[in-house]
Task: inverse folding
């Protein structure tokens, strides 16, 4: 019966329902496993990173899958979210003792800053198209990382101190505290992220993006993706909707950054965590999971975060295997010959399914 | 005098970027794909030259030729195995496959050659040029790099203008299907493009490592990204654009480092790129594409 | 439907692959936790998180020391050196009867010098049943891991993460100098020996290690009356071309260039300075050690370079020579300072364990408390210093040695 009901509702609503149910079911299973002590430390440690990358992948999917613009600078928004939230946490740590309140304030700060950057960067970037847009997002991502590395902010009894490029100019009194110390980044960030917080953030992100893509605005965004000129000719305000999708996408990536920063006690902007390599990694999640499929993004983010860790036993070979798997998956998913072959199987599969249904 | 010396360093760095950017721009023009693994082909080229020179004691020139051959073959193989099956797939799928190839080459090099840095001895034995009583020194490598860049650029332009294969490349880049109908072997042309691009990558790699003598499995990735930026800067798909983009990028990087901030030189490069693209959305020499309804 | 199908197929492929790898892992190693990650269910009995402290006690017949550092990625050379040297020390200890009569197991995990991966590596080692941690090799990951070890009460000794941020917790100790120490010592040495009055600094502003030393060097230089004529930085993304920085140092008239950086970049700086005909005195710190070992590097260029380092591979004492020849025999390279620090670190753990009289059946937290207590009362003679002692802060006190490169070899000064 339940199956029938599920089929009778709108496809998009069903899709949304399945995805959210999947996240909740996984959450419950994980909680049971943790409670019964049957989950390894490695897996427990990976829970928050999986949430982080899922969230960022959801954000990027909105940009790539629905807006149809390739961004390879999303790690930059993650970076903005991570640094601004960690900054706020450090600042308020002494005055607000409740961890949840503190995390919420930091979250708001991180998301708002990322959204602001998304908006500001979006204005010039979205005038461009295709590969040119991609390279400019990459450039912005690199600039953000570069600038954070030369930023020095400290606080002592005399108030705030700022410096760019050289922290030696700042002489702190004894009780002084570094907030951002150039390349050393922010240290001693309280450990506020948790799997529960991560899952709640995933659910919120999902609700936002599903509601957006199924709304009037969402249809406008997809119309722009499918045919910009046609969309323009029916009176859709291209700039407004593009900016809207891009800003929301950046804000969600920023939320991922907040989770990232509060999971480790230190955050630095290195090429490995906020450079173009990370942006590309997130793009890989999105494309492998299927552009436009938020569920796919989550699954791909989780599996690909796991893969290198599970391959730890193979030590030096794991990154090599990872790359081969990546190539093989792309060929399998996209090569016309493979698709043909899969369709043959798929057709058979579907026919059987139909018989069952009857 | 300092300024002049910075300028020459910038042109030298830019020449290397330009040669690498050629590989990106040609492949993009013809296969409409971003070959992210291009930077890593450079690295493989360097290792081959290094091993041939210091391991086997082969003459530098012969070592460079071996390296060009190996890289050309590698380029063709990568194209056949990873990119060709995806010819009609979405550009994003090809992009990610290229990223996969890039990771593969880096990690294969890590396993084969080890993580430790090798000091690359310059293949250029030309003595440095001292001008104005030694106040201005131009190293032999710099001279050779700039010369090589000009020679390659001219040769490539002649190749495309004068030869049948070159004309075929032009035709494929204009319209793949029409070229096919006119009897151009599209697959062979694309393979040829990859071969030339990878061969150039080997030369660029050797020049890069001669000027900045260090070699690790990750050597290729940053110059790769910068050269890609240079290709977009000059207008991707355009060969003179790659030259102009590369050299300008090199000069901006060095002057930015000298006069603004050595830590923000990358940020400056990327900021200039953004400004240029906003003023001219398809790069300096890029073709304006008119959309058809 | 096509999309959904592709997702299902993707997932299926991944799962099979992971299951496959998990199994082969389990076969290849006796470590019980290896396939825990694959299914997240099997490892329950053997070792797991909630009961990390019991994990070690479960077999209780050997000490399990874990190590973390980059063995892939662009800092791989440092992690690999630490891994190899620590293995040598562990093998020696086992051959000589182990610690307190118990054999030692050592396992090293890769972190690619990334904080998040480092925490994963730490958790993975905990699943293996690690009781003591020798790591991590690089600073930023070490700060993140130190936070985890503090929560678990795990004893941690880092061979080479030299920032003071690393040792804020009571359970973390360093085998190497702290960055501020090196900067101050270098400035004092230069002033006391009258090496130069006009000094240029070229440093890596994106490296915690390098910018840490640079900051204290500049501060102390002011006290010592040294004039800093150029302060030039580079970053991890642009560390191949130093011609601009050198040009500036040259035109500012610097007689000495201070290089608080690793030898990889230093080797390029020396080559490029030679190319432009600039010949100041170069002065480095411990990261400079290893410059003579760079494959194919023209060591003539390093002639006259001075550095403060705790270890020189050509020292003629017996311990160093034995270590160097064993390392070369097993791994084919000349060990650098990281290797020496790691080798010492294992012996320091041994000394602390013997001082505290611990046994492997103790929990990791109990071991941690006992070892941390013992650290302040031991004195260790190692490759990187005689009579090394520790303060409760975790900082080591040992004397830096100044060496100069002469005839292609390190010579004491």
Result:
């Amino acid at each position: 019966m339940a199956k029938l009901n599920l089929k009778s509702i709108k496809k998009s609503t069903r899709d949304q329902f399945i995805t959210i149910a999947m996240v909740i079911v996984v959450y419950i299973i994980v909680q049971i496993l943790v409670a019964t002590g049957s989950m390894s430390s490695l897996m427990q440690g990976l829970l928050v990173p999986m949430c982080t990358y899922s969230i960022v992948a959801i954000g990027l999917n909105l940009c790539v899958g629905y807006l149809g613009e390739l961004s390879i600078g999303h790690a930059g928004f993650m970076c903005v979210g991570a640094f601004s939230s960690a900054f706020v946490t450090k600042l308020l740590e002494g005055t607000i003792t409740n961890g949840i309140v503190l995390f919420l304030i930091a979250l708001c700060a991180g998301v708002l800053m990322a959204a602001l950057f998304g908006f500001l960067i979006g204005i010039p970037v979205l005038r461009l198209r295709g590969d040119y847009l991609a390279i400019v997002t990459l450039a912005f991502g690199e600039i953000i990382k570069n600038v954070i590395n030369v930023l020095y902010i400290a606080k002592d009894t005399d108030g705030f101190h700022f410096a760019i490029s050289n922290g030696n100019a700042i002489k702190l009194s004894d009780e002084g505290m570094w907030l951002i110390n150039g390349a050393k980044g922010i240290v001693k960030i309280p450990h506020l992220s948790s799997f529960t917080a991560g899952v709640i953030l995933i659910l919120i992100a999902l609700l936002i993006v599903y509601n957006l893509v199924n709304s009037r605005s969402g249809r406008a965004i997809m119309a722009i993706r499918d045919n910009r000129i046609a969309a323009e000719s029916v009176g859709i305000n291209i700039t407004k909707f593009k900016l809207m999708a891009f800003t929301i996408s950046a804000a969600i990536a920023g939320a991922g950054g907040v989770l990232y920063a509060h999971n480790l006690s230190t955050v630095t902007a290195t090429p490995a965590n906020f450079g173009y390599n990370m942006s590309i990694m997130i793009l890989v999640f999105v494309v492998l999971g299927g552009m436009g499929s938020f569920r796919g993004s989550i699954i791909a983010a989780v599996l690909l975060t796991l893969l290198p860790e599970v391959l730890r036993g193979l030590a030096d070979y794991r990154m090599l295997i990872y790359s081969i798997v990546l190539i093989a998956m792309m060929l399998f998913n996209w090569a016309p010959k493979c698709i043909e072959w899969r369709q043959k199987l798929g057709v058979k599969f579907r026919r059987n399914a139909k018989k069952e249904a009857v | 005098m300092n300024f002049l010396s910075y300028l020459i360093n910038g042109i030298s760095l830019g020449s290397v970027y330009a040669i690498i950017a050629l590989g990106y721009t040609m492949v993009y023009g013809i296969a409409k794909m971003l070959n992210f693994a291009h930077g890593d082909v450079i690295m493989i080229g360097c290792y081959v030259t290094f091993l041939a020179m210091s391991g086997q004691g082969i003459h530098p020139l012969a070592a460079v030729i071996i390296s060009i051959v190996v890289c050309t073959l590698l380029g063709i193989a990568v194209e056949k195995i990873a990119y060709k099956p995806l010819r009609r797939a979405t550009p994003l799928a090809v992009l990610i496959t290229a990223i996969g190839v890039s990771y593969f080459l880096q990690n294969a090099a890590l396993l084969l050659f080890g993580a430790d840095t090798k000091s690359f001895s310059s293949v250029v034995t030309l003595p440095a040029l001292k001008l104005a009583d030694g106040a201005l020194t131009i190293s032999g490598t710099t001279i050779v790099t700039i010369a090589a860049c000009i020679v390659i650029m001219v040769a490539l332009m002649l190749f495309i203008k004068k030869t049948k294969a070159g004309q075929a490349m032009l035709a494929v880049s204009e319209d793949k299907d029409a070229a096919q109908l006119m009897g151009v072997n599209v697959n062979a042309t694309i393979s040829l493009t990859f071969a030339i691009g990878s061969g150039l990558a080997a030369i660029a790699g050797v020049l890069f490592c001669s000027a900045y003598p260090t070699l690790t499995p990750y050597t290729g990735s940053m110059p790769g990204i910068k050269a890609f930026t240079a290709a977009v800067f000059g207008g991707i798909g355009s060969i003179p654009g790659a030259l102009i983009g590369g050299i300008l990028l090199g000069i901006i990087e060095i002057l930015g480092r000298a006069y603004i901030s050595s830590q923000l030189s990358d940020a400056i490069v990327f900021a200039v790129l953004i400004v240029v693209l906003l003023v001219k959305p398809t790069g300096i020499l890029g073709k304006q594409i008119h959309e058809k309804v | 439907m096509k999309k959904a199908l592709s997702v299902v197929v993707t997932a299926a492929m991944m799962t099979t692959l992971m299951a496959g790898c998990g199994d082969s892992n389990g076969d290849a190693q006796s470590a019980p936790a290896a396939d825990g990650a694959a299914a997240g269910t099997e490892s329950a009995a053997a070792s797991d998180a909630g009961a990390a402290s019991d994990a070690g006690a479960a077999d209780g017949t050997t000490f399990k020391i874990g190590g973390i550092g980059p063995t892939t990625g662009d800092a791989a050379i440092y992690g690999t050196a630490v891994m190899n040297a620590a293995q040598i020390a562990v093998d020696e200890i086992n051959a000589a009867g182990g610690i307190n009569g118990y054999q030692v197991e050592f396992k090293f995990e890769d972190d690619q010098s990334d904080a998040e991966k480092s925490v994963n590596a730490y958790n993975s080692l905990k699943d293996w049943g690690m009781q003591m941690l020798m790591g991590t090799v690089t600073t930023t990951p070490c700060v993140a891991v130190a936070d985890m070890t503090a929560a678990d009460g795990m004893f941690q000794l880092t061979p080479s993460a030299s920032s003071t941020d690393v040792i804020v917790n009571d359970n973390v100790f360093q085998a190497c100098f702290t960055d501020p120490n090196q900067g101050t010592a270098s400035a004092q040495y230069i002033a006391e020996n009258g090496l130069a009055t006009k000094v240029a600094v070229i440093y890596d502003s994106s490296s915690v290690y390098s910018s840490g030393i640079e900051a204290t060097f500049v501060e102390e230089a002011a006290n010592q009356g040294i004039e800093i004529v150029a302060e030039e930085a580079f970053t991890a993304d642009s560390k191949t071309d130093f011609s601009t920085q050198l040009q500036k140092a040259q035109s500012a008239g610097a007689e000495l260039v201070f290089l608080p950086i690793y030898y990889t970049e230093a080797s390029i700086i020396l080559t490029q300075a030679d190319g432009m005909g600039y010949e100041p005195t170069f002065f480095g710190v411990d990261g400079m050690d290893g410059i003579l070992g760079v494959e194919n590097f023209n060591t003539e260029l390093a002639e006259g370079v001075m550095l403060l380092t705790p270890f020189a591979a050509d020292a003629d004492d017996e311990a160093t020579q034995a270590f160097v020849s064993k390392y070369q025999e097993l791994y084919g390279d000349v060990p650098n300072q990281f290797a020496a620090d790691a080798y010492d670190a294992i012996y320091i753990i041994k000394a602390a364990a013997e001082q505290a009289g611990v046994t492997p059946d103790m929990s990791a937290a109990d071991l941690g408390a006992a070892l941390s207590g013992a650290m302040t009362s031991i004195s260790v003679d190692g490759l990187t210093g005689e009579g090394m002692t520790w303060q409760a802060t975790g900082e080591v006190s040992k004397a830096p040695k100044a060496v100069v490169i002469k005839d292609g070899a390190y010579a004491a000064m």
